[in-house]
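Re: [help] complex structure
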Amino acid sequence: MEQNTFLKPRTISAIKDFICVLPALVFLGIFTYYPICKLIQISFTDWNLLNDTWNYVGLKNWIWLFNGSGTKHLLNSLKVTVLYSIGELTITLLGGLAFALIFGRLNKTFSIMRAIVFMPKYVAMSSAAVVFLWILNTDTGILNYLLNCVGLPSVDWLGNRNTALLSVLMLTGWRAIGYGMMIYLSAMIGISKDYYEAASLDGATAVQSFFKITLPMLSPTTLFLFVTTFISSMKVFQSVDILTSGGPYRATEVFVYTIYKYAMEDFRMDRASVVAIAFFVLLLVVTASTFKISNSSVHYDS
Amino acid sequence: MKKALAIMLTAAMGCGMLSGCSGGGSTGGGAVQQTTQAAQAAGDSGSSSGETSAAPAVDASMYEVTEPITIQWWHSIEDQNAQTVEDVVSAFNSSQDLITVEAVYVGSYGQVNEALVAAHAAGTGLPAVTVANTPYVAEYGAGGLTEDLTPYIQATGFDIDDFGKGLIDASSYEGKQVALPFLISTQVIYYNKDIADELGVTVPEKWDDMESFLEKVSVVNNGTVERYGTVVPGWDQWYFETFYLNKGVNIINDDRISTDLDSDAAVELVYQFKDWCDKGYMYWANGTDASSIMRQNFIDKKTFSVMHTSSLYNNYVDKCDFEVGMAWLPGGETKDQEIGGCVLLIPSKNDQATKNAAWQFLSYLCSKEVNMTWAKETGYIPTRNSVLQTEEGVKFLEEKPAFQCIFDNLDLINPRIQHPGWNQLATIWKNYMAEIMIEDVDIPSKIEDMVEEINEVLEDS
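Output below.
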């Protein structure tokens, strides 16, 4: 049998492997790395979305972002986004866990209740946001009507800087809490009954069982929910766009909305690019840190 | 082998990245753009709009529609006028055999702007004709988004001189007719005429008389506001910028890189507004649903008057169970106002056949007959001199006597301020104004921050 003198069998195998992953690489290259590369390039230009041409301006946009009027808005967006993320994480993790404990019984009544709690997840964000616009309307909204019924004054939910972000969180929380509940429920079902039986024999109370067995055994699920919710909450846009458009006076201007505003309202693709890169780096660092920290505090059944 | 694979992978990724970084200096979005031979033939002669209705100086055959074509018209005309849109488009489609127009409601002016700019940058998905809010004309003109309509006007002998000079200026950029006036409005005060008659008050003509007027028409009991005197639509600076202009404030100075919004006159206005807001004489409408809340407050008689666009006249009249009055805004040293509403334009990256069809439809929409249809069925102003200064104008006023205040002051309606950074300036301005009016903040430091930001934007635009 004639041997291939140029390439060893392992090399041929590796080339075959490479050809197999090539479509995925091309896809990644076009839709992930090319845009990132383009973003970096645009950040050094003065590209206005309306123009077909641009000029390279060196570090001008970066100086604007870190040592100009952009700094103030960057810090504002950072603050708003972090506050929003903390809010959504709290609702999804604590709310989800609480609902999972409340609706955890596996009978038909509770199954219907779980379905009701989870159902908002199926409602399109845009539709839900429009409904919340009505609910939160200062003069005709049902929320203020209920407040008035119990003798409390009306609140300008979307027009006041202290309540605008809370209003956005009401909407996202309403949609997210059911999701958190379902993830926790499925994880709870997976916890072996043996642990609880052993604890019961040792005289452990329900509270002790929860803190010593349920919570530690749910830590991988909590990590999963934390990371996915954190990343999605950092990228929140739609609810902010419909409910507040970043207002009042930038009080709900989260990162993605800031990028969108620079690019699509001001046409400043150059400024949008530097903010987007800063956001990208921030997300990368925080996500990597989360994984690093979590390695030491997550308990796996095995 | 691992090394070889790594080299290949790096090379593959590197190619992708290199291609990403190449081609500097162009967005690559101009593939669709065709060099408009016709425009070149017309030679961008820089002819003023006043000369455009002269005998055609270009080859009219270059602008003819010779093949059947379907085109899109993007608009922002809301549901209440959907029937008028349908009637107008159907009438055009049935008036000839070659062009079929599809009217597409895109959303608000802001949403049309976003969709249009994105399509322009991509070089695809552009409408043949689109509406554009009047302040965008300068930015679109500077960015080359709009087709210069001058050769089309010359080739077809379109009677552009029948528009007022202010309207022509508002739809041109640096001498080029980049758009035509379509649905034109201005700022007015709508007021409850029944209450005005009862109290024996009229909307003042002078800013200095506003305080006593607001005191009379507002109802504030022990700090609780039962009826506001008026409402300022803080969501759009167009509604309050006219007060600054009439006080002699240069929103953009002659140097084009700085603002006068921290001048004594401008600061005095801020304090005046704030004082009236604090007293409950007015409120500063802000937020995503501020417009609908403001309208509802007026309908519910929770406010005596509102500052709004004249285009909503029919809407207010239909919904109020009292007589609606309409008045010119109180003036300062002058009592000028600014054009609102929208113009029509043809995106420059369309192919010539689409542009030719678009021009036919655009010139039809801007015709006197269609304009009068809009004027009668909405609150938009008749734009043609041949209507305003003739029997037709008299007849129009008989049908809508409230428009007398606009007809009396037509010469005072000016084009918008044109600057490539205007949109950014407006956003900064209205954000700071809303914060000052609604929150308890240190006003001088906020004004200082605002002016610093605006100057930075103007310098960098």
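Chain B is about 45% helix and 15% strand.
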